[in-house]
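Mods, move this if it's the wrong board.
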Amino acid sequence: MLWYVAIIAVLNLGLGYLWGAYVRPCPRCAKARAMGLSLLAPTLNTERDFRAAPSESVSVADLVQESLESDTTISPVAENAPTTEPVKPPVPLDPATGLVTREYAEKVLTQLAAADSDQLPLTVALVELAPIDWIGEQPNLVIDKRLLCGVSNVVRQSLAEDHTVARFNEQQLLLLVPHEDVQHATRRAEEMRQRVASTEFVADGRTYQTTVTCALAEVSGERNGPKLFEFLQEALGEAKRYGGNRTFTHDGSSPTPVVPTELSVAPQQLAI
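Not the wrong board. Structure tokens:
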């Protein structure tokens, strides 16, 4: 009976040892395993994400080809961008009147009078403004300049868009009239002369009136270059000798007066 009890006790001790050593989890080991799993969780997640993500590897050849295509591709904006035209230099203007300068007008005259020019016939006119008679008063240079500007506006009203008006001298204007012979240009000059004479120029509450004297010559082989301006000055001097407010032409031989024709020009006022 004692042997039976002893055997049972030994078996119980053995089973208890086996249970405690191999079957029942150790608290310390369980805690260590839990800490190890928590430390390994980011790695496991990363590996899981990496395995789940599709492969996006790009070869070096693909990268080079993509770079070449990006360099050679032209955007729609660049392809449709307008070509830049060369910037033209500004036209020189006279500061007092706003007209083009004499030097510029002479260059234009050279181009218009070229032998192969399609601007012929071409007529050139020299217009001189009569000075104001400051009787009993001191001459007012400011009013003189403003009056010249006012007359310049009236002259431009009598010309076409392709005509040129320049300040030639102190009180003189140079007109370039392409596509018109001296006969047609003379009628235009007469209308301009009569329009200036019928205009009251208003400045600082006062009205002023003035007149212009005109000389015209048609450009040709013998009436060109410096000789042309000699003819114009000669015709202008002869018109002034006749009292001014007249129109003369020059045919290369001598100045010829133009018989004034009464045109229907309405009086007007112009602030200057």
